[in-house]
From TrEMBL:
Domain named RRM: residues: 7-83, 106-184, 214-286
Lineage of the species this protein comes from: Eukaryota, Metazoa, Chordata, Craniata, Vertebrata
Classification via Gene3D superfamilies: 3.30.70.330
Subunit structure: Homooligomer; homooligomerization is induced by Zn(2+). Interacts with FASTK; the interactions leads to its phosphorylation. Interacts (via RRM1 and the C-terminal glutamine-rich (Q) sequence) with SNRPC/U1-C (via N-terminus); thereby facilitating spliceosomal U1 snRNP recruitment to 5' splice sites.
Residue stretches spanning the membrane: none
Compartments it resides in: Cytoplasm, Stress granule; Nucleus
CC per GO annotation: cytoplasmic stress granule; nuclear stress granule
GO biological process: apoptotic process; mRNA processing; regulation of alternative mRNA splicing, via spliceosome; RNA splicing
Swiss-Prot/TrEMBL keywords: Acetylation, Apoptosis, Cytoplasm, mRNA processing, mRNA splicing, Nucleus, Repeat, RNA-binding
Cross-referenced SMART domains: RRM (SM00360), RRM_1 (SM00361)
GO molecular function, one term: RNA binding
Species the sequence originates in: Gulo gulo
The protein's name: Cytotoxic granule associated RNA binding protein TIA1
Length: 345
């Protein structure tokens, strides 16, 4: 039905000299506009606006005609507004609406972000691929600084797939970014233990083991465990040097080329669902070979049953402490490489 189709456009990357009157003058040449709302970012980012048409067909024509056009010397970005005013209003809370939206859409993990990259930056970078329902750079709750990754959610699966294929390895800011499907994370069970368990941040996790330790233990995949599955799951976090899988035991070890990549992987993958199994991730055991990499660079710490590979990092008390809840990222609702229960805000 016409009333249910979007009629509002997002217009970004505008010059600070552009006014609502100018936007209305330009877009009204394509079809009658209902209103225009200009948003001036006090943080110094480029302004943007929302243009609402009376009819969907005029909005669609404006999207096709105006995206990439130059207005006052700047190439503007035009896309469907992420929350079109033409959508039916929901009487439930905004949190419920946001959670429902995230369940129905398709989520892309974006890793290796430069510290200066903002939510608006990744939103603008991925906007050309289709309608975005949400975008977010994950930040540390304590410091407010970016954790180096984020998520972009699309209305359509094809748009998300195209974004993953096209944006992987592209430069955003000063780094080449990584893209992959975000891993769905189920709601954590409500329990007294969990409510009293502190959720560790990246800074805490990265300091749990020495800088020479680049190995992640991933357990709980009691069926369907393969090297390919582990590579697909962990590759967004950095260069993988080695993977060892033990399908009969339900766990694996992944060695990265850097301690920081391994820390990001622990924070992000722990507690997510892989092949229907909620997994546990923490540091692999530090061996003498890790501390002296010149002597032996390719060994990974494995459970005691495998003899020379040693045992899991930490003692039994530490394993008990970390495994029931583990490290989770305080970021997104039920989804993502590390989305918790707070939901999209």
């Amino acid at each position: 039905m016409e009333d249910e189709m979007p009629k509002t456009l997002y217009v970004g990357n505008l010059s600070r000299d552009v006014t609502e009157a100018l936007i209305l003058q330009l877009f009204s040449q394509i079809g009658p506009c209902k209103n225009c709302k200009m948003i001036m970012d006090t943080a110094g980012n480029d302004p943007y606006c929302f243009v609402e048409f009376y009819e969907h067909r005029h909005a669609a024509a404006a999207l096709a005609a105006m995206n990439g056009r130059k207005i006052m010397g700047k190439e503007v970005k035009v896309n469907w507004a992420t929350t079109p005013s033409s959508q039916k209003k929901d009487t439930s809370s905004s949190t419920v609406v946001s959670t429902q939206r995230s369940q129905d859409h398709f989520h892309v993990f974006v890793g290796d972000l430069s510290p200066e990259i903002t939510t608006e930056d990744i939103k603008a970078a991925f906007a050309p691929f289709g309608r975005i329902s949400d975008a977010r750079v994950v930040k540390d709750m304590a410091t407010g600084k970016s954790k180096g990754y984020g998520f972009v959610s699309f209305f359509n699966k094809w748009d998300a797939e195209n974004a993953i294929q096209q944006m992987g390895g592209q430069w955003l800011g000063g780094r080449q970014i990584r893209t992959n499907w975000a891993t769905r994370k189920p709601p954590a069970p409500k329990s007294t233990y969990e409510s009293n368990t502190k959720q560790l941040s990246y800074d805490e996790v990265v300091n749990q083991s020495s800088p020479s330790n680049c190995t992640v233990y991933c357990g709980g995949v009691t069926s369907g465990l393969t090297e390919q599955l582990m590579r697909q799951t962990f590759s967004p976090f950095g260069q993988i040097m080695e993977i060892r899988v033990f399908p009969d035991k339900g766990y694996s070890f992944v060695r990265f080329n850097s301690h920081e990549s391994a820390a990001h992987a622990i924070v992000s993958v722990n507690g997510t669902t892989i092949e229907g199994h909620v997994v546990k991730c923490y540091w692999g055991k530090e061996t003498l070979d890790m501390i002296n990499p010149v002597q032996q660079q390719n060994q990974i710490g494995y459970p005691q049953a495998y003899g020379q590979w040693g045992q899991w990092y930490g003692n039994a008390q530490q394993i008990g402490q970390y495994m029931p809840n583990g490290w989770q990222v305080p970021a997104y609702g039920m989804y993502g490489q590390a989305w918790n229960q707070q939901g999209f805000k």
